[in-house]
Amino acid sequence: MNTARKPVAVVVGATSKWQADGRNTKLAHGKAAHKFPMSTVSRIVGTITASLLVACATSPTKQYDVRHYLTRPSAYRLVEVLAERSDEERLQVATQVLTAKGIPHKLEDFSTPRANGKNLVFEYGSGRRLIVVSAHYDPPPDSPGANDDASCMASIIEAYEMLRRRGDLRNLKVRFIFFGAEELQRQGSKAYVRTANLEGIIGAASFEMCGIGDSVAVWSAEGDTRNSQLVLAIEKAAKDQGIHYGIVGNIPRYYSDHESFAEMGIPAVGVTIAPREDEAVLREYIKDPNAFRWMRVENRPLIFQTYHTKNDTAETISSAALLLAARIIYETALNLDSVLSSNPQE
Ligand SMILES: [Zn+2]
Fold first, then answer.
1. Is residue 245 in some structural domain?
2. Domain that holds residue 269
3. Averaged over 290-312, what is the pLDDT?
């Protein structure tokens, strides 16, 4: 049912844009090198070996280094830099970006029986109450991991910049965390909640897949969490901005770092950007992700067509979706700051 809306990359020079015209997705980068007959290539490149060319053609990875972002920062450009990279490289890029922007941050080591790694933590605001807003920097195995979850790293940095431009939050502190080893049963966040100072925390939101769509899906909003200050603030942010949203309870099969906070009794939700027109099929999918009809990739909601596959590339990401996620984070923080200022005892 989603075939017509399948992601398509149209390559214009070194950059690419989305079109929903049903043409096939393909990176021109890799194909162009194949078009030269070997004799021509030999004449032109001289000492470059054929094997190196083949390697370049088949793995068009790491086309952008961090300067691609720093010379002209945008959330989309940051996804281009982060996609196709390993978790260590992503952590390094994120650290370089925060350093270049003068954003104070800490790298916190964690160690569990399944993983050793680092979480990257930075904060905004001077309030007594705290929310955690996170993304994970480890990509899924064998996937470029653009939407999952480079997209949300980019949206979070964008949201930080928006907050910084606006000025202090006096009643709230937002702790942004890029967790490691989320794909490994969320080792980074599990370790984090055991030792972190979470005094004053009122909620945690894990942002997963921020790069495709025009509406907000809040998930794991079960029981009291549904009407927690955090979820109400996200809901108000979406409403005030005229952004369509859906709120659901626990869903089978999918997890994210917010669950480590929920296990500590903290109201915690996952937040995902998805196409509004996919809402019905998305609700069907998350209810029963193992159903037979999802075997056909084009039957799935758009965000699950590339999820955990080699097709989760930067070309599938829309700048507008990234900015929408950033706007939701920003407005949620302002809403909470304002609620907390009118209830100082909270
Ligand atoms: Zn993820």
1. yes
2. 82-342
3. 94
By the 8 A CB rule, do 167 and 239 touch? no
Same domain, yes or no: 170 and 307? yes
> With bands split at pLDDT 50, 70 and 90, how would you rate the model's confidence at 321?
very high
* Helix or strand holding residue 160 (H, E): helix 151-166
Ligand 1 centroid to 244 CA: how many Å? 22
Ligand 1 centre to CA of 204 (Å) is: 16
50 CA → ligand 1 middle, Å? 37
Are 124 and 38 members of one domain?
no
- Residue 207's Cα: distance from chain center in Å? 6
| 23 vs 200, higher pLDDT | 200
Å from CA of 341 to ligand 1 middle: 33
pTM value is 0.82
Q: What is the pLDDT of residue 27?
A: 30
Going from the Cα of 137 to the center of ligand 1, the distance in angstroms, rounded, reads 9
Q: What percent of the chain shows pLDDT beyond 70?
A: 81
How far apart are the CA of 270 and the centre of ligand 1, in A? 10
Cα–Cα distances in angstroms (integers) from residue 98 to residues 30, 91, 122, 136, 175, in the given order: 31, 11, 9, 16, 14
Tens of pLDDT, residues 168-196: 899 999 999 999 999 999 999 999 999 99
CA of 256 to the centre of ligand 1 (A): 7
How high is the mean pLDDT of the chain? Answer: 85
C-alpha–C-alpha distance, residues 237 and 333, integer Å: 9
Question: Is there a domain that residue 213 lies in?
Answer: yes
Which residues, including other chains, have CB under 8 Å from residue 33's CB and lie 6 or more apart?
A: 53, 56, 57
| CA separation, residue 62 to residues 24, 55, 79, 186, 203 (Å) | 22, 13, 11, 26, 36
Token representation of residue 111: 């160690």
* Residues 28 and 173 placed together within one structural domain of the fold: no
> If you measure from the C-alpha of residue 336 to the centroid of ligand 1, how many angstroms do you get, rounded to a whole number?
26
Distance CA(263)–CA(259), nearest Å, equals 6
